[in-house]
Amino acid sequence: MDDKTLELAEILARNDKKIRSVWKQEQQDAENRRTARWKEVREKQAKLVELDEELEKLYWRLADKKRELERTDQYENNTFSHTITSAWSSLDKECKDLDRQHSKKKQEIEKTEQPPDVVYQPLPQNESQALRVLFFLFTNVDVAHLMRAFLHYIIFDKCC
After folding, report:
1. Distance of CA 87 to CAs 11, 65, 91, 93, 112, Å?
2. Can you give the residue range of the structural domain that contains 47?
3. How many CB atoms are closer than 10 A to CB 23?
4. Considering the domain boundaries, does residue 118 fall inside one?
5. Which contacts of 11-14 are long-range, i.e. CB under 8 A and separated by 24 or more positions?
6. Coil, strand, or helix at residue 55?
7. In-domain check, residue 75
8. What SS3 class is residue 65?
9. pLDDT-based confidence at 117, cuts 50/70/90?
10. Residue pLDDT, tens place only, 38-83
11. Contacts (Cβ under 8 Å, ≥6 apart) of 67
């Protein structure tokens, strides 16, 4: 398609109320999509701060329990009693549970770190280019072909 066709499409689109209305609505919709995406990004950033804090707390709780488990294990090796074995078992279970929580929190962080879906804008941001696109979307196909043929006639047939 040549430049003259596109220029005529833009001129006609600028004077078409329906196309102008669609363009204004699309501008608003595009802004709403951008705003919604940035809101989602900010929410994810805030959530990541919370998750990082929770992960750090879990890390330190797990480290404390593991140290306690090691002390109990060392003490158990020197003396054997049912009470100590039960305490070791309980600590071992707590460590495994905290380890699972820690792993789940890491997975949640990885999932939250994924960026939101890309925002696709269906029309060019430039008004002239967008009006050209809208002209061909909202104009009867026969009229568009007729216009192209007419421009071809004016440019090539009449001048030569």
Report:
1. 84, 12, 6, 10, 37
2. 3-111+125-157
3. 19
4. no
5. 12/135, 12/139, 12/147, 13/131, 13/132, 13/134, 13/135, 14/131
6. helix
7. yes
8. helix
9. confident
10. 999 999 999 999 999 999 999 999 999 888 888 877 665 555 555 5
11. none
Q: How far apart are CA 123 and CA 27, in angstroms?
A: 9
CA–CA distance, 86 with 90 (Å, rounded to integer): 6
Using CA atoms, how far apart are residues 124 and 145, in angstroms rounded to an integer? 23
Residue 120 covered by a domain: no
**Distance (Å, rounded) from C-alpha 128 to C-alpha 137?**
14
109 alpha carbon, distance to own chain's centre = 15
CA pair distance 121, 99, nearest whole angstrom:
44
Pair of tokens at residue 110: 């990885």
Residue 87 within any structural domain of the chain: yes
Cβ–Cβ < 8 Å for 90, 53: no
Instruction: Name the domain count of the chain.
Output: 1
